[in-house]
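2.7 Reproducibility. Because tokenized structures are sensitive to small changes in the input, we list the exact sequence used for Cytochrome c family protein, including any N-terminal residues retained from the expression construct. No trimming or masking was applied before prediction.
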Amino acid sequence: MKCCNRYLLFMLLFFSMALQATPVSDIANTVHNLSSSGPGTVTATSESQICVFCHTPHDAEQVPAAPLWNRSLSGNTYTPYTSASMDAVGLNQPGGSSKLCLSCHDGTLALGAVNVLNGQSKVNIAMSGTSTTGGMPPGSGTQTGFTRNLGTNLTNDHPVSFPYDSTLASTDGELRDPALVSHIGNRVAGVRPPLVPLENGQLQCVSCHDPHIRDSNSAVNIKFLRLNRLQVSNPLGGNFDRNNDIICLACHDKLGQAWSMSAHANQTVADEIYSDTAAAQRDFPAGTQVWEAACLNCHDTHTVQGARRLLREGTDSLSRPKSGGNSAIEETCYQCHSSDGSVLLGQGGAGFPVPDIKTDFTSTRHMPITSADQPAGVEVHDITDADFSETTLLLGKGNAQNRHVECTDCHNPHRLMKNQLFNGSAGNTVGTHQHSATVQHSNIASGVLRGSRGVEPTYGSSTWGSVPSSYIVKQGDGGLGASTAVSSAHVTREYQVCLKCHSDYAYDIPPTLGDAGGGTPSGTNGLLQFTNQAMEFQAPVSDLGEPGGNHRGWHPVLGPTGRTAAVRGTTPSIFLAPFSDASGTNIGNQTMYCSDCHGSATANGTSEPSGGPDGAPWGPHGSTKDFILKGDWNNGTGTGQQDDLCFKCHNYDDYANPNNTAPKTSGFRASSSSGGMCGISYKSTNLHIGHARRIGRMECSWCHAAVPHGWKNKALLVDISQEGGRAPYSSAPYYMQAMLGGGGAVNWKSSGNWTSSDCGGVSWMGRSCSNPP
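Resulting structure tokens (single pass, no recycling of outputs):
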């Protein structure tokens, strides 16, 4: 037994050392050995000296602090990396030792061209495996992310030659301060350099790379990186751990724990495995998991030409690997979030845990995710900081052509979690919000919206039609166990993210239908323009419950209605799960999400996508239905259309089924003194079913507003007497084949107290029921 224990201890130590292998200085066994004995594809045909391709003891280039450089420097002018969210100053042409790297890696100079060889000047060593001009070979193509011929356009390459100091770290907010950590600092002669050495306070190529090193396992390609190329163990989110953390975290702390708990970094969640083909293309070891690849899942320090923010495969190129093209952020996400990305084992198969977002975005109706779909025809989206902030101008206010959608408008990939709640722990790995009748339904943001940016409307008036007086921007990350209060500085509600675009925060004039590819065509349901959801969903305190007479009505997205089952005298199960509960305490006190109605089409009688919380996507990415709804909504919604939107939450049998002989109690019922009600059955129980049986069918828009977000009347009821009284009446956006009030003004009654004369008059109602539209 002791022998066995010693053996196990040895093996644990062995594998631990293997995972934390220390790079060794051995240029002879790296691709930087360009001599005839080199192991790479580019080698000299006969020259056996190794160091001569870069260094000479005599007649070296006159470059300050250069290590006896034996190559001429390129005289090219470079196009450096830049972005609206980059806070570094003084970013211009590459300088310092980075110029030495580019003398080979910009591809303009022959690799065999050296200043001195065996006492001879300006010698061109014969080489094999180079480009046709003798320079750096193209790899998979000079416009791809799988080449080390970087060219002179460095907009797709990590920036270099910029000051990295405390000011930059403070301004950025997600960088480590070199003045406060010991592993970042200037290289000093005669002193062992820090883990991330700077040159005169500037970040250069050699801050990350040492051109002489390899992994102790020669089969592992570490790209000459001074620190780990992959994550070794689950990140802890605190100080940089050189033994376990990927090199990116040496500088980018990404709010520490926010990144470590994210769905792209957490070992418990991101355990999908790269296919051998995808791993080999990226020079990952076989069997690499998503959490190990970490930053490199989405970013590549030398990515495809045309991509922004170093996004891996982030262009609209149709080739694989992508070669050039224009920036297309969604393509980076589609690598994994699609059925055809061919990156992860099992991708596209049944039960694959990564949501297939691409299929939704290619549905008949979808958000304008591609540049071709967007009014401007180019990628307008441009964030300014780590919170993914964007100006209202770029959202469309002041220029409607700027309206757009990108994945990062709604999600912060460095912070989002697979969790029911945005402030939950990483152990709760459920793919979406709490959606069960056992828990009171809420509108609290789920983990996929953690750290996103949104707005909270504030109101100066509760009068219908009054738009918000202002909007409070919500951004940042509250951390583990963050407050769920609406007043918090960070996003706490899904609607806050939605209203960032779907309100007058992002436009001057409401957008027109059909103004973007994948949108609902103009004229659908009579609509020409979208409505202001921040105005419609307002939940005024003065209109909570049944205050008497008429009052505003709304679906409880911003706030509850206060109209409980007890207040209205209804049977709780007239609603479907999760909005019903046996006691009826949830109804009227609960709230809901925009995505309870908007998203890919769902089965009859449920708003839950196929596969449940970890199945099909829950968000409003796309649908086969107009307005990206989970079911149809039109002037036929009602009897015979069980699959339509209303009946995802409202029980069809109790609202529109004329064959129901035992309807549950509804808030729409008559008082005991209401009289005959034209022979309508179930008058004291359920007048929805009573009308359906009397007429033979029932259509929702006969009585209810055609845009059911919110309305000026209780229960979203129309009153066309205010519009001239001619029935059926249609006038976008709120009237679609409306009938209620056609015989005279509606007399507003509390639930359970309606009479035959309250809806426009007994005679008119009788005639209308006999001859419905």
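The longest strand covers residues 113-117.
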